Amino acid sequence: MREFDDKNITQAVIHRLSECADPRFERVMTSLITHLHDFVREVNLTEAEWFTAIQFLTDTGRTCTDKRQEFILLSDTLGVSVLVITLNHPADNGSVESTVQGPFYWEGAPDLPRGSNLAEGVKGEPTFYSGRVISEDGHPLENALLDIWSGDGEGNYDMQIPGEKGMKARGRIRTDAQGRYWFRSIRPTFYPVPTDGPVGRMLRKMGRHPYRPGHIHMIVSAPGHLPATTHLFVAGSEYLDSDAVFGMKESLVAQFDRHPPGIAPSGERIETPFYTVSYDFRLRPATAVAVEGNV
Ligand SMILES: [Fe+2]
Q1: Arithmetic mean of pLDDT, 24-48
Q2: 42 Cα–ligand 1 center, Å
Q3: Contacts of residue 44, Cβ cutoff 8 Å, sequence gap at least 6
Q4: Could you tell me the distance, in angstroms and rounded to a whole number, from the CA of residue 201 to the centre of ligand 1?
Q5: pTM for this entry
Q6: Beta-bridge partner residues of 117
Q7: Residue 114: exposed, middle, or buried by beta-carbon count in 10 A (0-12, 13-18, 19+)?
């Protein structure tokens, strides 16, 4: 057949995959084409809308830089990121839940000793974080790595601050022989995802707010265990009920206890009120994926 109508075009495009050598790619593309065509038919897409979509995706690509990933933001705000994460990282047996990585991860944060202040010179209320990294059966995991990042106490990440060239509020901390970690940073506040690009325009047109509840990010990993890309959310933060990227998980909400000025857990005297928060990260064994794959 050389000519196609609005119905048989879908099978015609799928048929062109008949010599695809990669079965997984063939399956993904077949499904993508099927749903994309069904979507176009369902909404009866106009040419103007099609061109708007082309311009939008072009703008999204052009907005990406080495420090800004507008496509991840698009995926996040459409709920795709958290859907992929939830499918690939089921949390069971009490293991820590995963959530979105977001667009502000910066590989290569400095390795710092336990107890370090990650937020030297960063705006925000001092907060002392502590807890353990443990296995599924509760054993401490020594030398587990927490790769940590957050915005400042006003919701700005280092890479968003004009003139700020270096890393701020980032660091890599390892656990001790008892699986314990502790470090100082700030109490994160809610903040808007970037709204000065195409995704911001999309959110406004949808009538949506761009805010995320206060949270600190970390990738927690240990030998022989599955890494978890996750957050701790500040209990009571605004927007916990309507996270713009749908990343909120109840199990990741942590209590930040407020203390008057005085001696901090680090032993230093803090002249302002400060916070403490404690959270244990339970990691799944690396074998969990192999077992599920065989079922
Ligand atoms: Fe964030």
Answers
A1: 98
A2: 35
A3: none
A4: 20
A5: 0.89
A6: 184
A7: middle
**Residue 244 CA to its chain's centroid (Å):** 12
Ligand 1 centroid – CA 276 distance (Å) = 20
pLDDT category of residue 103 using cuts at 50, 70 and 90? confident
Q: Which amino acid is at 151?
A: G
Query: Tell me: the pLDDT tens digits for 168-220?
Result: 999 999 999 999 999 999 999 999 999 999 999 999 999 999 999 999 999 99
User: Cα(66)–Cα(223) distance, rounded to whole angstroms?
Assistant: 30
Q: Tell me the pLDDT tens digit for each residue of 126-135.
A: 999 999 999 9
- Token match 């470090």: residue? 183
Residue 169 CA to ligand 1 center (angstroms) comes to 12
- Ligand 1 centre to CA of 88 (Å) is 21
Residue of 222, 229, 68, 246 whose CA lies nearest to 140: 222
Compute the distance from residue 211 Cα to the ligand 1 centre, in Å: 10
% helix / strand / coil in the chain, to the nearest 5?
30, 25, 50
How many A from CA of 10 to the centre of ligand 1? 40
pLDDT at 238 over 60: yes
* pLDDT value of position 169: 94
For residue 214, report the distance from its CA to the centre of ligand 1, in Å. Answer: 8
CA distance linking residue 43 with residue 119, whole number of Å: 49
Q: Which two tokens stand for residue 265?
A: 């857990």
Distance between Cα 8 and ligand 1 center (Å): 45
Question: Residue 254's Cα: distance from chain center in Å?
Answer: 17
70-77 vs 80-88: helix crossing angle, rounded to 10: 80
Rounded to whole angstroms, how far apart are CA atoms 52 and 243? 27
Tokens of 145: 């790595």
Alpha helices in the chain (DSSP H): 9-15, 23-43, 47-63, 70-77, 80-88, 198-206, 287-294
